[in-house]
Design brief:
Layout (H helix, E strand, L loop, with lengths): L1 H8 L2 H22 L12 E6 L10 E2 L1 E3 L4 E5 L12 E4 L4 E2 L11 E6 L5 E9 L4 H11 L21 E4 L2 E8 L18 E5 L18 E3 L20 E3 L20 E3 L20 E3 L20 E3 L20 E3 L20 E3 L7 E2 L1 H4 L1 H4 L5 E3 L5 E2 L1
Keywords: Leucine-rich repeat, Repeat
GO cellular component, one term: cytoplasm
Organism: Maribacter polysiphoniae
Length: about 400
Amino acid sequence: MRNIYLTNYITPKHVFRLLCLIVVLVSFGCSKGDDPIPEKSSEKKITSFVFLLTNNPIDVNVVATIDEVSKTISATMPRGTNIKGLLPEIKISKQATIDFDTARDFTDPVDYTITAEDGSKAVYTVNISAPLSQKQVLQAILDANPGNTLGWDMDNAVDLGNLDGVSTDNGSVVELYIHSKNISVLPKEIGELVSLDLLVIKGNQLSTLPPEIGKLVNLSNLNLSSNQIASLPTEIGQLENLEYLNLFGNELTNLPTAIGRLKRLSQLDLRENELDTILSVLGQLNNLELLFADGNRLITLPPEIGQMSNMVSMSFDSNNIVSVPPEIGQLTNLESLSLEDNAILEIPKEMGLMTNLLYLNLWNNPLWNVPQSVCDLQSGNGGVLFLRTNIGVGCN
């Protein structure tokens, strides 16, 4: 009777309702378990990089530039700032972390690694520079040459203009004269003396020049005579205001083509080097008036020499020159030409076109004759041409 009672009590309607309840419960349980897990962020950027004056030895806030493409950050600190212990304020993407948030030495590039919430990483390279003070540059010259005889007392130097060989204008070094002071290294810091107008480092032991020499864009007079310089950096062509360049008594075997960019150069002294050729690019130096290249190993002169239309005086004594290009006759402003002690067999008749020539030195060359057109210059140029040749050389 008990089983009959239960069977009669559980009707089909009850069964249907029970099945529906089971379906609902199963569906709810499945949907709850299938909810998507929130995706972790992949953002890993440095959004701000600032040096605050409250945290660093500076008098203004310095905001760095962020290049997101190259992942580089750069900033220039005020002149003379010590960059060995700077503390930046860094802002990064939400949920990301950074490997360093303390003071760093920025003397060399510094890397920062940003880690996103999802574990991916990005590395930013930070480059910080600070122009040196004028005093720091002079100190760098001292430090690079421990055996120097400059006699500079930097610890007690209040006015740099009182240092031997140093002239200043409004606190900036404008002239630096270093003669025979046992200087063998010109440090890269020399490029920080951007107000320099005169630089004389002669009678020392320099063998190279730093590329930073090209930063001295206000330089008008550069004297590097009597050193041991074997080559010049191409950056010397950046000295756009240079008017006087003295390289006498070095060990140069060639000149960089960049020297042809010195458009304001008026005097060039190349005497007593080891040059075996004069670059054709010198023909681009239209303002050149004085060119001295005695005591080298020159064999020929380039035809482009005729393009130096403002040339007044040239000297090529004691070389191995065997011929002179006829284009030299285009130098109608030339007043003095010395070719003593070479191997010249003949000179071009076009030299007779040099109507302002007052001095022509052909001594100690295997010449037999001088073109009549040149001899005629002795009375036709408004002055008297002094023609110096070996005894027995005639006009033809």
